[in-house]
Amino acid sequence: MSASPALDAILARIAAAAQAAGRDPAGIALTAVSKQQPWEAILPVLAGGQKVFGENRVQEAIGRWEGRRDGLELRLIGPLQTNKAREAVGFFDVIETLDRERLALALVEAAGRAGRLPRLYVQVNTGEEDQKAGIAPRDADAFLDRVRGGLGLPVEGLMCIPPADEPPGPHFALLAKIAARNGLAKLSMGMSGDFETAIAFGATSVRVGSALFGDRAAPVA
Ligand SMILES: *Cc1c(COP(=O)(O)O)cnc(C)c1O
Question: For FRET with 194, which of 6, 29, 32, 42 sits at 20 to 30 Å CA-CA?
Answer without folding.
Answer: 42
